[in-house]
Amino acid sequence: MSVEEAPWKTTTEEESANPQRGFDEKSGFDPETGIYHSLVKLGEQKQIPSRPDLDTATFVLSQFPDSHKSESQIALIDAATNQHVTYAQLHRSIRSLASGLYHALGVRKGDVVFVLSPNSLLYPTICLAVFSVGAVLTTANPLNTQAEIAKQVRDSGAKLAISAPAELHKLVPTGVPTVLTSGKSSNDGLLSIEELIECCDDPLELPQISRAQSDTAAILYSSGTTGTSKGVILTHANFISLVTLLQWSVEVTSSEKDVFLCFIPMFHIYGLAFFALGLFCSGVTTVLMQKFELQIMLDAIQAHKISNIPAVPPVILGLVKYARKEGSDLSCLRRVGSGAAPLSKEVADRFRERFPWVELRQGYGLTESTGAATFFASGREAKARPDSSGVLLPSFCAKVVDTETGKGLPPYRKGELWLKSPTIMKGYLGNVEATTATIDSDGWLKTGDLCYFDEDGYVYIVDRIKELIKHNGYQVAPAELEAILLSHPTILDAAVIPLEDEEAGQIPKAYVVKAAGSELTEDQVIQFVADQVAPYKKVRRVAFTSAIPRSAAGKILRKELVSQRKQQLISKL
């Protein structure tokens, strides 16, 4: 069933965005309110559903291909085993698992289900089955420590855990009842999701469960790149809005014949939104990798004729530096998206130079906005503005706020990006102070990102406001310096942090990963950057390291580098 045929009321586009039309038709900026409006239309046939009792699983499943087509249409392929899952098989697995969760395990509406697993063919089934019974999903990175997992289990109030067998030992100390993702019950005496699906092959019907779009659907923990990780409360309305926007964007930029590659972790909002929910609404095929490995990715692209890859900047950098050396044939590739972290203009330019037939498009979003905010409709537009993150998605409004005066700024003026849309989170779990500091009384999400709009409504993310380096009263953006460093032929990765300085306040310090065999020196790195920036932006210190700490989504964990620096100082004392 298509969105326009669904038996629920939909909002009009003016209701989703803003009925006032007193803004500039070119930039979307309204000088009276200081608000930027999205200039992109969903169209009359595609609107965000507003039926109040609709839930995410019901909506996503309603978008699957019709019964005849779903039996043959491939939804998922495991890159490692080549196992195929059709849309019909996926639908049956979701119904069976939902029945098992409800009738066999007693999972009820509002119960929190904790999922600790890498990507797998079962991951989307688990997510949609949890939503089907009205339970709340919370996901975690399998690389998290036992202490980090215990904290999230406790903070989220999880009643049940679903774990990959290899991660089970991290959950045992929490005492939370646990089901394995795979295996037989003889393994530690624990039931598995695979067994639940098999035993409920002829599933009992679920009772009528009262639902509301305003109900909590998931609690996803932000990466905590600049502070403590917080539980982001996302509602069914948030996910339904996001999935509708994603479905629409796929329709205007891709086709059902596209084959997508998934190595983005599904425990992250980027992977969850795209691969566990959104792409199923467009009937496309996704090839699934358990985790990212460059050679496995290159092999999968060739073997499955991958045409579309939602990626992150480190992967794009890897393609630039290594793909051609491996002699891989990437001629089938048509589109590569970049999100979750800033993609530098230098890396983007080098990617387009190496792969001129591939559309490279950057987008922007946060966990707090259900992973969405901006996009590029075409590769041509993205190429014309390589350092932009695109335009506001339909239903989005934005402000660029002067952090000192609180006023909304016009095009080309830098300030903090504020967002408003149906995808904005409900708040932070159990943290009223953080919620009120992040969402104002009018519903504006304060992103903490420094940005500006141009005269055509394109957004440019400069850096995290909290990460700006204050040097002699000037603001230095680490992301700008990192982009320059990455343009050096023998620098594989880089990060820049502030270093306290008695005279200047702070100075930029670079951590650099250099290529094997490189004899690059600190002085050469300093001079390389100095030749390309104003004097106040120069890197003043350089440390060579084996790896840059990054989150699962590719964000640089600068706070870890700062912490390492402080520990080094303490040890010297």
TrEMBL record:
Molecular function, one GO term: ATP binding
Chain spans, region Disordered: 1-32
Domain of life: Eukaryota
CDD domains reported for this sequence: 4CL (cd05904)
One Pfam family here: AMP-binding_C
Keyword Transmembrane: yes
Domain AMP-dependent synthetase/ligase: 71-429
Keywords (A to Z) from UniProt: ATP-binding, Ligase, Membrane, Nucleotide-binding, Transmembrane, Transmembrane helix
Residue span, AMP-binding enzyme C-terminal domain: 480-555
Sequence intervals crossing the membrane: 267-288
Family label: Belongs to the ATP-dependent AMP-binding enzyme family.
Protein name per its UniProtKB record: 4-coumarate--CoA ligase-like 5
